[in-house]
Automatic annotation (TrEMBL):
It comes from Microbacterium betulae. It is an enzyme of class 2 (transferase). This is mevalonate kinase. PROSITE patterns: GHMP_KINASES_ATP. Pfam families: GHMP_kinases_C, GHMP_kinases_N.
Length: 308
């Protein structure tokens, strides 16, 4: 039965990243093929075992600060038992790719601590713990990642609240990695700086992104891939205007279009990281090949099942 553990999965933002920070709705989808897990065994003092670092928690590198924040907050909520332990963290979600790696690890850690203390956390309690870690990782996160890494279906997110959306027919997406990490904190800060200097430009972009997110949700419900793809591509143009795209992201979105994808865009914070491209068919092999030929170092797929 193993030591007490927790797990969470990756996520992708289909529409509305950055605009969501300013109150616009966004749509996120779970990416279940990539996972983070955490397990705890009692030990003298607190230790961490991970791909990045193994040793006393006190000497962990700054990149593990969000993990420590999640662990601390969860141990505080659940009693100190979870703190005098060795925490083993594994994640196949690459960091800095807009795939929610920090939130997924935090969610897995919170669940592992709760399991060790035999406490059942409510969804809201777990969310608050993940957000504590996200705040350490990103400054002032909107909370969309914290919801998405534990979500079982696609959802619309706005001002902290997540509501599942209807899916009219199955959809397949390819996520392609530029191979370059992007800092979400830096990207969010750059949009904020642009908003300070050019408020009208950013406010107009946020309004348009809000419309695109709601139109995309309708297209998903009405099983209209062309309408959805058009909204995704339009969103990419706006994100580029906001300065969060990159030559690598632009070239992968172009390659997706050339391979017949109805729409493609960067996903997450941008300035590196990944694109998400809608596939015309459930067989994504051709689109994945095209994206790899255009320079993607890895590709993954995620599918949305039709809701009844
Ligand atoms: O963690 P990322 O890179 O998927 O970015 C999250 C989405 C942003 O809108 C850019 C930031 C946020 O807090 O919502």
């Amino acid at each position: 039965d193993g030591p007490p553990g927790g797990r969470a999965h990756a996520k992708a933002i289909l529409l509305g990243e950055h605009a969501v920070v300013y109150g616009a709705p966004a749509i996120a989808v779970p990416v279940r093929s990539l996972e983070a897990t955490a397990a705890l065994v009692p030990s003298t003092g607190s230790k961490i075992r991970s791909a990045l670092y193994t040793g006393p928690a006190a000497d962990a590198p700054p990149s593990l600060a969000p993990v420590l924040a999640a662990w601390h907050a969860a141990a505080e909520r659940c009693g100190t038992a979870g703190w005098a332990s060795t925490l083993t963290v594994r994640s196949d979600i690459p960091g800095g790719r807009g795939l929610g790696s920090s939130a997924a690890v935090a969610a897995a850690v919170a669940s592992a601590v709760a399991a060790q203390a035999r406490i059942v956390l409510s969804d809201e309690e777990r969310h608050a713990l993940i957000q504590r870690a996200e705040t350490v990782a990103h400054g002032r996160p909107s909370g969309i990642d914290a919801r998405a890494v534990v979500a079982t279906s696609p959802f619309r997110f706005q001002r902290g609240a997540a509501d599942p959306i209807d899916v009219g027919a199955p959809l397949a997406f390819v996520i392609a990695d530029t191979g370059t990490a992007g800092s979400t904190a830096d990207a969010v800060a750059s949009v904020r700086a642009l908003r300070d200097s050019h408020p009208r430009t950013v406010d107009t972009a946020v309004e348009r992104m809000a419309e695109l997110a709601d139109e995309a949700a309708i297209a998903i419900a009405e099983a209209d891939p062309d309408a959805l793809g058009a909204r995704m591509s339009a969103a990419h143009e706006i994100l580029a205007l906001l300065g969060v795209s990159s030559p690598g992201l632009d070239s992968l979105t172009r390659a997706a279009h050339a391979a017949g994808s109805p729409g493609a865009k960067l996903t997450g914070g941008g300035r590196g990281g990944c694109v998400i491209a809608l596939s015309l068919s459930p067989d994504t092999a051709g689109l994945e090949r095209a994206l790899r030929s255009a320079g993607a170092v890895r590709t993954w797929t995620t599918t949305l099942a039709a809701t009844a």
